[in-house]
Specification:
Order of helices and strands: EEHEEEEHEEHEEEEEHHHH
Largest sheet: 9 strands, mixed
Number of domains: 2
Radius of gyration: 29 Å
Number of strands: 13
Shape: elongated
Structural class: alpha+beta
Length: 361
């Protein structure tokens, strides 16, 4: 049996800040990656379209990328450098990697193949960590303010992938099978091909072509989950800050709550409504996307992983924020009523005193 080819999967895609066109993106990415001495065999294939990706975290802006095509290169990273980049994650016997990033209208996906003597590699997912850190360091050395990495977690995906000759597992296409072994930590994904029907390179390409759509949906679902989480925790933070104002004593703190908290409470209420609407729309989009993906796929390799991710709605966090808001709104209403009653009483005393003094004249 031929030696296994191990590879890892994740999302590491170069983005160009403020790029207005596909040509500008392609030019900046080409200049940047070709300036890194360890990178060779660089090519960009059939990139088309140009659309905004969701930010990979709450600090990033929306930057545009191709929605089809592929970026490919080989990179040499010595073991001593690997150890510096990712301590304890170096891949013995592997110093050459082939990186393929497929662009997709849903989300880009990166496959990293361990080249050379990779027969003893049991954790090819480490390759994503090494490539990620390597590109961060090398792009940083170039001191370019316009190019950075778009990274979407989990990168690496929580699985180790292997391709070898054989016919074990479920058939995903003619001559190509897959078998998934669940284990503590990262699962094993074994792809096997029939050498009478496919050569090794064709089999590897077919694995990537088959899996990229499932991974694109997985990362899209994960990006919506991250934004639901961000919105939910954002409302909790605002609710907690408001709650802290009610622990403050003194007349000035009391007056600040009465006159300032009303607008903040309204903003929090609107934020909660927006979070709920986003969750409803995101869930609808995700369900439709997943249904379309698997409508004609009898073998659903990533379906369990996608299902687990899309169920993360963070509803408990939103409910906690809403309950806190209800309490704070009631407290604010009570304080406003007290201040209004006090002012009305005070005004009555002043007016009464004024009328008494005037009538005594």
């Amino acid at each position: 049996m031929a030696t296994e080819t191990p590879f890892g999967v994740g999302c590491i895609a170069p983005e160009v800040i403020g790029a207005k066109s596909l040509e500008q993106w392609e030019r900046a990415v080409t200049e940047t990656l070709k300036s890194i001495p360890s990178i060779h065999n660089f090519e960009i294939q059939e990139v088309k379209g140009f659309f905004a990706l969701p930010p990979s975290d709450t600090r990033n802006t929306f930057e545009k990328m191709p929605n089809s095509g592929m970026l490919k290169f080989r990179v040499a990273i010595p073991l001593r450098v690997q150890e510096d980049l990712a301590p304890g994650k170096s891949l013995a016997g592997v110093e050459e990697f082939t990186v393929r990033t497929y662009f997709d209208r849903r989300h880009p996906v990166t496959f990293v193949v361990c080249e050379g003597d990779a027969s003893e590699v049991v954790n090819p997912s480490y390759s994503l960590m090494i490539i990620r850190e390597f590109l961060k360091v090398e792009i940083g050395k170039l001191k370019r303010d316009d190019v950075r990495l778009h990274r979407m977690g989990p990168t690496p995906f929580h699985g180790d992938f292997f391709l070898r000759e054989g016919a074990a597992g479920s058939q995903i296409t003619d001559g190509l099978h897959v078998d998934v072994t669940q284990r503590r930590g990262y699962d094993d994904f074994h792809f096997e091909y029939d050498p009478q029907k496919l050569d090794h390179e064709k089999a590897l390409w077919r694995v990537f072509w088959w899996m990229k759509s499932e991974f694109a949906v997985f990362y899209y679902v994960n990006s919506t989950s991250i934004h639901r989480m961000s919105r939910a925790y954002g409302t909790i933070e605002v609710a907690q800050e408001l709650a802290e104002t009610y622990a403050q004593t003194g007349i000035l703190s009391y007056l600040r709550r009465v006159f300032r908290n009303k607008s903040t409470l309204l903003a929090l209420r609107l934020s909660l409504i927006e979070a709920k609407l986003y969750g409803i729309n995101a869930r609808r989009d995700v369900e439709e996307m997943v249904s379309l993906l698997y409508a004609e796929r009898s073998v659903q390799v990533l379906k369990p992983y996608i299902d687990r991710t899309k169920e993360e709605a963070f509803e408990e966090e939103a409910e906690a924020a809403e309950k806190t808001l209800d309490v704070l709104e009631s407290q604010h209403t009570l304080e406003v009523q007290r201040l209004t009653t006090f002012c009305a009483s005070l005004l009555g005393v002043v007016v009464g005193a004024f009328l008494t003094a005037w009538l005594r004249k």
